[in-house]
Structures are given as structure tokens and as C-alpha cells.
Design goal:
The protein is an alpha+beta fold. A 4-stranded antiparallel beta sheet has the order 2-3-1-4. Strand 2 and strand 3 form a beta hairpin. It is globular and about 35 Å long. The chain starts with a strand and ends with a strand. The model has no long low-confidence stretch (mean pLDDT 97).
Length: 69
């Protein structure tokens, strides 16, 4: 398992952070995800053999936000 922290741009409310949390947790290979609106970041624990960082970033973008390393 690998843990990463990504900056997240484009969140405006608690609904945004909750929606992104659900999007991330629903990805195959993601064990846990915590999204903070106040800190504008996502802490993600994932299995590198099941999902890549690029795939996670694509899912963030598909949800309408921007992931920043």
C-alpha cells in the first residue's frame, strides 16, 4: 500500500469534499481516502498494483476537480 497527499483545487463546499471522498473510495485499488475542504487536500491510501496515480488523478478530474502533486 502507498499513501499520497494530493492538493485539490475546485472544491467550494462540504458537498464537494464528500463527493470527491466517495469517488476516490469507489475506485478499485483505493483502500482509504480522506478529503479536506479546509486544507484543500486529499490523503489517499492505495494499492499500486491495482491502480496508478495517473488513474487516481483522472478520476479527480472526471469529478470536476484538479489534483496537484
Amino acid at each position: 500500500m502507498k499513501k499520497i497527499i494530493l492538493g485539490i483545487e475546485g472544491m467550494h463546499c462540504d458537498g464537494c469534499s464528500k463527493r470527491l471522498t466517495n469517488v476516490l473510495k469507489d475506485l478499485e485499488g483505493v483502500k482509504d481516502a480522506k478529503v479536506s475542504l479546509e486544507e484543500k487536500k486529499a490523503e489517499i491510501e492505495y494499492d499500486e498494483s491495482a491502480i496508478s496515480l495517473d488513474e487516481i488523478k483522472d478520476a479527480v478530474a472526471d469529478a470536476g476537480f484538479e489534483a496537484i502533486d
